[in-house]
Write a structure and sequence with these properties.
There is one protein chain. By secondary structure, the chain is α+β, with helices and mostly antiparallel strands. It is built from twelve helices and 21 strands. The strands form six sheets. A six-stranded antiparallel β-barrel has the order 13-16-15-14-17-18. The chain has a five-stranded parallel β-sheet with strand order 7-2-1-11-20, with helices on one face. A hairpin with a 5-residue loop joins strand 8 and strand 9. Helix 1 packs parallel to helix 6, helix 1 packs parallel to helix 12 and helix 9 crosses helix 11. It is elongated and about 85 Å long.
């Protein structure tokens, strides 16, 4: 039985503490906030998308960076085991579209309560308002962990330390990047950290007129010059600054490497179920029904009311033009616009709006079978502090549970 200190009381830290305690160790969980699971509380819009009900290979396929590193962690504690863990503790869960798993109650607080209950059962000592200043290590070559020093100057000794401090997103929850500083001070490489799973700002100012408008069943493509970077079907949202919603949040992780090369061009196919020829026939039918009306009054069946003034302004047809006077050429241009509605993506929003952080502690310096540092013995990593990120749908929390479990289990 040894002493284990876990730094960070988020998803990865709590799971790591539970598993280390189940292995018979004396575990202290240090959290700088006034309560555990602050970021977990706001995930999934407060509903907490616990994991994704899919096979291990699908989990790996939804990891954007360093997916091979997670092979052992995912196989040790996959999404089925995560669901079993919570169900065994009495948390009722449900699966929604896309395999997304939520607590039956739709309250993230129930997930946190469940974890707190297990921490108590396993006799984990939880210290709140405990801000770590440094991780202590002994030896010059082949260094090993000896404990931590807190901001108040007190020293806690332990043979093993699990670093689960999170990334830099949502700093108000305590993810202030401290973990990167601790890792770097012990010789670890930390790659550049950027916001990921984050909305975009656009060059077009008219997006403000569409603020709050959600488009479902559209197709979005993003290009750098002629190179196609992203193409997907789903739901998106206009905001006062640009675009967001599930499609764009996922796109942000895929196009992240091109962030320096912004702006990127984006096109929305507003009618992806129809070819241009089929759409033209549909428009012709609408025009025939409204042939004596003005163009602006003939579009209610095609678009939400908010979108009509914007799409008219982007078309070559005057709002007041009578429908029966619109030329075939203008009509075909209008059809093309519906299939290629253009936007210019200028930049990402900041860490305050990012769901996760891209970048972090290099996975090359961490043993994927144990989550232990290859540079400092007794130092383990779990969760977002590592250079790992995945798409939305419960995959990032699965990374937290799996790496936390494996780190705790390997001690």
């Amino acid at each position: 039985m040894g002493k284990v200190i876990v730094i960070g009381g988020g998803a990865a830290g709590m799971m790591a503490a539970i598993q280390a305690a189940r292995n018979g160790h004396k575990v202290t969980l240090l959290e700088q906030n006034e309560k555990l699971g602050k970021k977990l509380y706001i995930t999934g819009k407060g509903r907490c998308n616990i994991t994704n009900d899919c096979g291990t290979e699908d989990l790996l396929n939804n990891v954007v960076r360093n997916s091979k590193f997670l092979y052992s962690a995912f196989y040790a504690f996959d999404s089925q085991k995560v669901m079993e863990f919570f169900k065994e503790q009495g948390l009722a869960i449900k699966t929604e579209r896309g395999g997304r798993v939520f607590p039956q109650s739709d309250h993230s607080s129930d997930v946190i309560r469940t974890l707190q209950k297990v921490l108590q059962q396993e006799k984990v000592k939880v210290q709140l308002h405990a801000k770590v200043a440094d991780i202590l290590a002994v030896g010059s070559e082949g260094r090993s962990v000896s404990g931590v020093r807190l901001k108040d100057g007190s020293v806690l000794r332990a043979e093993n330390v699990i670093l689960a401090t999170g990334g830099s997103s949502y700093a108000s929850t305590g993810s202030t990047g401290d973990g990167y500083r601790f890792a770097a001070s012990l010789g670890h490489t930390v790659s550049e950290c950027r916001p990921a799973l984050v909305p975009f700002e656009t060059a077009e100012k008219w997006v403000k007129d569409l603020q709050g408008l959600s488009l479902r069943n559209v197709s979005v493509s993003i290009r750098k010059g002629k190179k196609l970077l992203f193409e997907e079907f789903g739901e998106m949202l206009f905001t006062h600054f640009g675009v967001s919603g599930p499609l764009l949040i996922s796109a942000s992780s895929i196009v992240n490497d091109y962030m320096e090369d912004m702006p990127l061009t984006m096109e929305i196919d507003l009618k992806p179920a129809l070819t241009e020829e089929q759409l033209d026939k549909r428009v012709l039918r609408d025009f025939e029904e409204n042939q004596n009306r003005q163009f602006k009054n003939s579009l209610s069946k095609l678009f939400p009311a908010k979108l009509i003034p914007v799409i008219i302004s982007l078309s070559e047809i005057a709002a007041e033009e009578k429908v029966n006077m619109i030329s075939r050429e203008k009509r075909m241009g209008f059809v093309h616009l519906m299939k290629h509605f253009p936007l210019t993506l200028q930049r990402f929003r900041g860490f305050q709006e990012a769901i996760i952080t891209r970048g972090g502690v290099s996975t090359r310096e961490v043993n994927p079978s144990t989550m232990e540092s290859k540079l400092v013995s007794g130092l383990y990593f779990a969760g977002e502090v590592l250079d790992l990120d995945a798409l939305t749908g419960g995959f990032n929390l699965q990374i937290a549970w799996s790496t936390g479990y494996l780190a705790g289990d390997s001690i």
